[in-house]
Amino acid sequence: xxxxxxxxxxxxxxxxxxxxxxxxxxxxxxxxxxxxxxxxxxxxxxxxxxxxxxxxxxxxxxxxxxxxxxxxxxxxxxxxxxxxxxxxxxxxxxxxxxxxxxxxxxxxxxxxxxxxxxxxxxxxxxxxxxxxxxxxxxxxxxxxxxxxxxxxxxxxxxxxxx
Length: 162
Description:
Number of helices: 6
Distance between the termini: 27 Å
Radius of gyration: 17 Å
């Protein structure tokens, strides 16, 4: 299954945020105004953002500035609630494409465009992940994280190189 969106527009945002608030409440968490603002920045972004870029973006419109360390804490919260993902290869963050679905998420896999830096979350078959795990075991290693980040070219960038 491919992710359903990136980025969202204002019309899509309100129902997503309402659903996310319900999901947080059911897990005993709270989506504070600042957490919501950071999540909104991720939802509006066309590309993954670093914590520094997120805090800079937040500070452009906020009445009170936010230090980058606060952005990191909020991003940790968003990750723990499966509302955002950190791309380890770039140390940047993206909004989860299934955050408002209300069901248990699969292990996220990401396609990252080497040209424009856009990222798309996809679901990979459990069979593929099991096969990968077996290959890792056979090589004498233990898989610590099954999240894949594949460097690709998106359709727009690959059309420009043709």
